[in-house]
Amino acid sequence: MEIKITRSKNLKARPADESKLGFGKIFTDHMFLMTYGPEPEWHDARIVPYGPFELDPACVVFHYAQELFEGLKAYRTADNKIQLFRPDCNAARMQDSCDRMCIPPIPVDDFIQAVKTLVEIDKDWVPHTDGASLYIRPYIFATDVGLGVHASKNYIFAIIAAPSGAYYAEGINPVRIYVEDEYIRAAPGLTGHTKCGGNYAASIKAGDLAEEKGFAQVLWLDGVEKKYVEEVGSMNIFFKIDGKIYTAACTGTVLPGVTRRSGIELLKDWGYDVIEGKLAIADVMEAGRNGKLEEVFGTGTAAVVSPVKELYWKGESVNIGDGKIGPVTQKLYDTMTGIQWGRLPDDKNWIFPVCEG
Ligand code: COI
């Protein structure tokens, strides 16, 4: 794929204090764009100065949310190399989301090339501070003009990037999670397995209510019986009960997280039984009451590996361990971030080099 590059003539000031970046608040100098339609192919790949879109108010995306996105990160290693973690998995997942949302897929190689090229051009924005990275947000949205509900024939594929720190204000400190028993996030046949914006829009109300009560996020139960644990607002979730590790299976209602699948591989390498399947919230609470709920942690690109210290469900709280990060959670966090930042060898070929820093 040929990418036309137009460099910004007004480079922005980069953040002076990388410890205060927050998540997804400021953006780099450039963005990647590619267009689909009116001819039936992706074309006109380009990198241009970061800036607003001019869109017709009747664009399909504004009315019917035909849209999807991805999230991945670029890391700066101690020897000043810039690298990505498993961008091929994001590219493949984006294709799956495209299929469900009737959006023409981006070839995997083009996706990776686009991400790499943008990161290389904006490489000075990849943070130098431990724990901070460049969060990359690829997304596609429908630009047909008109109010009929149909698959658009025109789209924009865009990639923006934001130097970011921890997703949660708590950082690696354990968070409190509210188990949602009124609203649902997904149901069989719907879009739970895709990264479409609509999934997140529908989750905001429950998230806000939980935050008002002092919880970091909600834990979603299955949408049919509200009985089985599925995932948390911005991450997959794992439970260590009596030595075994459980997480929901990816059978259509759970996001197939890249950190999730990487974590499962590492945990299995370390000899843990990892069970992907149905786990009833009642059994989790019971294990909590009996002292068998040893660790709970979330995984996600933004959240990395995030310990949970408390679950609240229907008026009852269970505390997990002693409220501090558990040993398996810590080991997974250290290993995952060790590979991502190049402190540990990449035995699994998960790292895609981009350039010298
Ligand atoms: C990510 O982890 O990359 C995500 O897309 C989650 C998002 C809600 C921040």
What's the arrangement of secondary structure elements?
Elements: E1 4-5, E2 30-36, E3 42-49, H1 60-64, E4 67-69, E5 72-76, E6 81-85, H2 87-100, H3 108-121, E7 133-142, E8 155-164, E9 175-179, H4 197-201, H5 204-212, E10 217-221, E11 229-232, E12 235-241, E13 244-247, H6 258-269, E14 274-276, H7 281-289, E15 293-300, E16 304-313, E17 316-319, H8 327-340, E18 351-356
Parallel strand pairs: 1-3, 9-10, 9-16, 13-14
Antiparallel strand pairs: 2-3, 2-8, 4-7, 5-6, 5-7, 6-18, 7-8, 10-11, 11-12, 12-13, 12-15, 15-16, 16-17
The protein binds 2-OXO-4-methylpentanoic acid.
Q: Tell me the series of helices and strands, N- to C-terminal.
A: EEEHEEEHHEEEHHEEEEHEHEEEHE
Distance between the termini: 24 Å
- Overall mean pLDDT score? 96
Oligomer: single chain
Beta strand count:
18
- Class inferred from helices and paired strands: alpha+beta
Rg calc: 21 Å
Instruction: Give the overall shape, derived from the CA principal axes.
Output: globular
